[in-house]
Every structure is written in C-alpha cells, then in structure tokens.
Design brief:
Elements lengths: L1 H8 L6 H23 L25 E2 L5 E2 L5 H6 L11 H4 L9 H19 L9 H14 L1 H28 L1 E11 L5 E10 L5 E8 L4 E3 L2 H4 L10 E2 H12 L3 E4 L2 H8 L8 E3 L4 H6 L10 H9 L12 H14 L1 H10 L5
Parallel strand pairs: 3-8, 5-7, 8-9
Antiparallel strand pairs: 1-2, 3-4, 3-6, 4-5
Helix pairs in contact: 12-13
Main location: nucleus
Organism: Colobus angolensis palliatus (Peters' Angolan colobus)
Pfam family, one: RNase_T
Length: about 350
Amino acid sequence: MSTLLLNLDFGEPPPKKALEGNAKHRNFVKKRRLLERRGFLSKKNQPPSKAPKLHSEPPKKGETPMVDGTWKAPSFPKKKKTAACSNGSGQPLDKKAAVSWLTPAPSKRADSVAAKVDLLGEFQSALPKINSHPTRSQKKGSQKKSSKKNHPQKNAPQNSTQAHSENKCSGISQKLPQKMVAIDCEMVGTGPKGHVSSLARCSIVNYNGDVLYDEYILPPCHIVDYRTRWSGIRKQHMVHATPFKIARGQILKILTGKIVVGHAIHNDFKALQYFHPKSLTRDTSHIPPLNRKADCPENATMSLKHLTKKLLNRDIQVGKSGHSSVEDAQATMELYKLVEVEWEEHLAQNPPKD
C-alpha cells in the first residue's frame, strides 16, 4: 500500500511540452480562424482591386505556419525571380512592389489627387503641340524681313494701280465725248400775233459733228409766223412733220444723262418744255474763255455767227434762205472744243448749282 500511495502522491507532474503544445495549438487555431474570417486563407487568388487594407502581410502561396505564429516562406524558383525583374533590366524589385496585391490600399484623398494628376498628364499629352506666340520684337523683325522680301512685289501692285488709274482716266476722257452732244432748234411763231416761239425743227450732233437727230416738228398750236428769214421753215416742211409730243419724247431720250452743248441753249430748252441739269449744260454764249479767244468782252453775249467767223474763220447763217440747225449745232460743238479742257477744269473746281 505504501508503494501505491507513493506513486500517487509523488508521481512526476505532466510534461511542460504537452501543455505548451496545447497552448500553441490553441493560439494557432485562433490565428487561423482570424485569417479565415478575413479571407486570407480561403481567398488566396483574390484580384488586386479587392486587396485588403491591412498593413500586415498575408501568407504567400506555399508558406507554412510556424509554431510561434510566424510564416516560413519557401525559396522561389529561378523562373519566378526573373519574372519579377523591372523593365527587363535584370535588377530585382522589392517583394511588395513585385506582388501588387500585397501593397496596402492608399487613402481616398491620395487616390483622388493622384487620379487628377494622371488625368491632367494624359490630357496634356493628348493635346496637339502649339508653337509659342512670338514676342513683339520677333514680330517686328519678321515683318521687316517680309517687307524686304516682298518690297519688289509691293511696287508691282502700286504700278498696276497707277496704270489702272491712268487707264481709268483715259477711259473717262474717251467716254466723255460719247456723252456730249450739241443741239440747235428752230422756232416758228404761234399764239397772238405769232409772239410765242414754238419748236419747228431740232437737230442734234455728237462730239464729232455727226447728226444724231434732225426732224421737222409740228407744233401743237396753229402757226401764225413761219419766220422763214431766220428759221428756214416753210409751209411744205410741216406736211409730214413729226407731232410735238412724239418728237419731244425722242429728243429727251437722246439728251438724258448727257452733256448738252448749245448757244443760248435756254431758248432751246424752253421750246422743248424741258429743264436740263446745269451741271450737264454748256452754253457757248456764256463762256468767258471763248470770248477772250475772240477778243471780246468776257461778260458780253456774242452771237454764234460772230464767234464762228472769228475763231473758226467760217461763215454761217448767210443768205435769205434762213439758218440751218444742223450747221449751227456743228459750229457750237467746234467752238466748245476750243476751250473744253480749260472750261471743264474750271467747272470741276467751281461746280454749278442746279
């Protein structure tokens, strides 16, 4: 009995290793469950976007747990090491940099700033390259160079414009005679005692003296005095004469818009019952340079017969058969040509008021 009691009372206590092993096992199980709850053991192949935000490193593939809670990483084969090299340079990268899902997730604020910077960089790189604007001094220098280079080209347009203006002036001088006509009318007496002058013949010539219009015209009123001594009109001329209204329309078509030359032309317009603009009217009975050429007083009203004899050395309105309106119109145009340049310059400087 004594031996039995001794065995019970003084037996050796249980070994410490077994107790320690139980505690370590419980600690291991606790950590494993924690890792399983957090998804490190069940979801080893999780994509990088769903990586946890813990700073502690999860167990890598092939690692074995140690008794003290640490993990022992096996040696990687050579092929995996070469795959983890940067840019093909052969220098190995850091383990955390090589495995992207092991790096801790950055904060939201840092993500937004980095995203903005990346977007800005992409936007700027996508923009086309624009040359910088030149400074004022560069602009001036380039303008001077271009002006030197284009100087002969600038002179060419100037010369062309001058030539164009000269051609234009010559064109105007050529068009001016085409727009200039001379007129002369012959009248007969109508009304009480034949004191009213009515149109009975009208002649119009161009700048060169060619006849544009020459017609006998039948007055609307009864003719009392034919005035044949001056007008050259006789009764037989009125047999086939053009009625006044028709003749007047024909004449005004020729005169409208043209420079009309005449001697005492206001009488002709009065017989036509027409008013022509003063700026387009040239009356040889009131042109001082013409009187000066004929050695006559400048303000005097000289007759067409006298001026023609004095300046053209030609006799008109001779005999008892009367005047010829065609002859008088041609003489008027020739007289005006003598002072045309001088008188047109005077009118350009002192335009008449209508």
